[in-house]
Amino acid sequence: SQQGEEDPQALSIQEGENATMNCSYKTSINNLQWYRQNSGRGLVHLILIRSNEREKHSGRLRVTLDTSKKSSSLLITASRAADTASYFCATHPHGSSNTGKLIFGQGTTLQVKP
Amino acid sequence: NAGVTQTPKFQVLKTGQSMTLQCAQDMNHEYMSWYRQDPGMGLRLIHYSVGAGITDQGEVPNGYNVSRSTTEDFPLRLLSAAPSQTSVYFCASSSVGGTNEKLFFGSGTQLSVL
Q: Do A43 and B106 touch (CB under 8 A)?
């Protein structure tokens, strides 16, 4: 079963606006990651936040993690048309020592209109 | 570096046929995994490997076999293709275990089973 549920499923904004995507998960985690997928391509890692971290920044990306609510959010500031893609959260379950066993959410499709 | 290379990019099979999806990485990653991506389902883990000679099942292993004879290669075998295996398949690898699991993805194989 899927660990993560993402909200919204689809998001359409104008260039320059901020985009916020949310991810909820069910079990305790070691870390949570966000990936981007352009149409017809593989996923690309964006950012990782560990369970003992609450907020992390990378360029125009800001990720927050609330382990008490089992939720995370990804904020993309000053969006660009090139940010149009699907965004996935992925969790590394706590107690799982085997790399590669990430559990992915269903994704949010972001469209940024020029 | 090529990263993670998947072949073929597209494949059409008839029900009952068998085939092997190839995955190779040149980053000396210990950890490799296979996911399938279906509309509205996100990515689901099929099989993964933590090193040469070691494999384990993921969430949806039925109908698939894997082996890991070398660090570089992690082929996925479909034993007797079924229409339910129509999907996009992604191979991914990672270098570090524990809590740091940034995955590198291949570009995917789009498989149709008629």
A: no
